[in-house]
Amino acid sequence: MQEPEFTETKSKEAAVPDINNQTGTITKLQPPVQSQEQWQQYGEQISGFLATLPEYLGSFFNQYKQPLVSVGLIVGAIVSVKVLLAVLDSLNDIPLVAPTFELIGIGYSAWFVYRYLLKASTRKELTSEITTLKSQVVGRNSPEA
Questions:
Q1: What is the Cα–Cα distance from 143 to 48, expressed in whole angstroms?
Q2: Alpha carbon 31 to chain centroid distance?
Q3: Alpha-carbon Rg of the chain, whole angstroms?
């Protein structure tokens, strides 16, 4: 059986000098690597960036106003639908509310069928109302079907 050969490698880490090797003594901190001038330079760069940030954001918003508003409306609609569904779900957990909603829906459907779909004259009335609503939404007269 062949045994694997191990070679010892020495780490090339920087050796930390022994500053104090006596027990109970406090080691002094090393002086900071970066000077005060470098910190001031960093501070000036940051303050310059923060000074131009409002102008940059204003021009960005003016350039992309329509897409940003569209995305905002879509996100708002999604959040509104989620909240509405959460409210309806919590209402359905209350006893007798879910069956009451079902009865209201069945009653409204029965009334709609009786009012608009049972007779030919009321179907024509419904068709004309839908056509009028469609022309108001679209903004032009659509051809009669």
A1: 62
A2: 46
A3: 38
